[in-house]
Amino acid sequence: MFDLPGSWVWDYWFADDGEQYHLFFLYASRALHDPDARHYRASIGHAVSTDLTSWTQVADALVRSDAPAFDDLATWTGSVVRHPDGTWYLFYTGASLDAGGKNVQRIGYATSPDLLTWTKAPGPVASASAPWYETLESGEWHDEAFRDPWVFPDPNGDGWHMYITARAPEGPAFGRGVIGHAWSQDLRSWEMRPPLSAPSEHGFGQLEVTQVEVVDGRPVLIFSCGSEHAMPSRAGEPGGGGTWAINADSVLGPFDIDAAYPVTDERLYVGRLLRRREDGQWLLFAFRHVDEEGRFVGGVIDPLPVAWSGDRLVAGAPRA
User: Fold this and answer.
1) How many CA atoms lie within 13 A of 156 on its CB side?
2) Do β-strands 126-127 and 160-167 pair in parallel, antiparallel, or remain unpaired?
3) How large is the C-alpha radius of gyration of the chain?
4) CA geometry: angle 97, 269, 222, nearest 5 deg
5) Where do the Glycosyl hydrolase family 32 N-terminal domain residues begin and end (predicted)?
């Protein structure tokens, strides 16, 4: 497991350079005392491993910018990909506050030759806008949700896709969560496209930290959402749901929100899939979300093997 004694650790993502696995993670000092305060103090840390269980912390990847900037409040969750020219791109969420103190999220990126030293690109490259995505003006949600970029190459070689935690401008407040979509030819300039899912009466207010993979020949999208941010019809799911999955015909969607099923309960959040280089085994990671009394815990668990059981992706039992 990866954890820090002096900090809370939560959302995270991976990169594999062929020799080491790289873990990028959000963390904030426990001196804040209130774990809910961590979101506005988040930086992006970095650790490396050769076996996915023993991790060595190295220099941080990114911190917030000086104001005024789209990321002058905090740097949040992202993903890492490598351009064919060898340059690594770290896409991340920049958080800032508007004049009324509401949180606004936008997507930016930084580049690196070695995964260790990162240089931010100026300004955001993607943000919520009409007609497809809800903004603060709707008044239906506590923030302008547009975060957690998951970037991957088009399977047919047609540029790159970005999936985003976003909200539609219509539908029930707790069912407006959609899979935002943007496309790029070069990873630097991004074109907004319509979402790849629709609002639903059996849906979620936010589909956090999406990821799409082909696991043992079957496309699947995973995301996270707790019961407090889902439609009431989801209340009967085992454990309230933490990490969810949607089976699909293609990694390019569309994705049927009504067909989402839980992979973990709310003890584990932000499930991430990673294929182990050494043997091809697919693994599920997550961070420890809450304990038996509902208190935040933090820390990234050791990997759990995943496999298909009928039409559902299932993971092994969490380690203590």
Assistant:
1) 4
2) unpaired
3) 18
4) 95
5) 19-225
Predicted pLDDT of residue 235: 77
Residue recorded with tokens 């935002």: 180
Query: What's the confidence (pLDDT) of residue 236?
Result: 74
Band the pLDDT of 262: cuts 50, 70, 90: very high
Cβ neighbours of residue 250 closer than 8 Å, sequence gap 6 or more: 155, 219
pTM, two decimals, is 0.96
DSSP the chain: -B-BTTEEEEEEEEEE-SS-EEEEEEEEEGGG--GGGGGGG-EEEEEEESSSSS-EEEEEEE-PPPSSSTTSSEEEEEEEEE-TTS-EEEEEEEEEE-TTS-EEEEEEEEEESSSSS-EEPSS-SEE--TTTS--GGG-SSSEE--EEEEEEE-TTSS-EEEEEEEE-SSS-GGG-EEEEEEEESSSSS-EEE--SS---TT-BS--EEEEEEEETTEEEEEEE--GGGB-GGGTTSGGG-SEEEEE-SSTT----GGG-EESS-TTEEEEEEEE-TTT--EEEEEEE-B-TTS-B---BPPPEEEEEETTEEEEPPPP-
Residue 233 is encoded by which pair of tokens?
Answer: 């019809």
Question: Judging by DSSP bridges, how do beta strands 177-184 and 160-167 pair with one another?
Answer: antiparallel
Q: How many whole angstroms from its chain centre is CA 314?
A: 19
pLDDT at residue 317 is higher than 70: no
Query: How far is the C-alpha of 188 from the C-alpha of 115, rounded, in Å?
Result: 18
Give the pLDDT of residue 320: 37
Domain residues of the chain, as ranges?
Answer: 7-315
pLDDT digit string, tens, across residues 201-215: 999 999 999 999 999
Q: With 0-12 CB in 10 A as exposed, 13-18 as middle and 19+ as buried, what is 4?
A: middle
Q: What percent of the chain is predicted at pLDDT more than 90? A: 93
CATH 3.40.50.10490 fits 7-315, yes or no: no
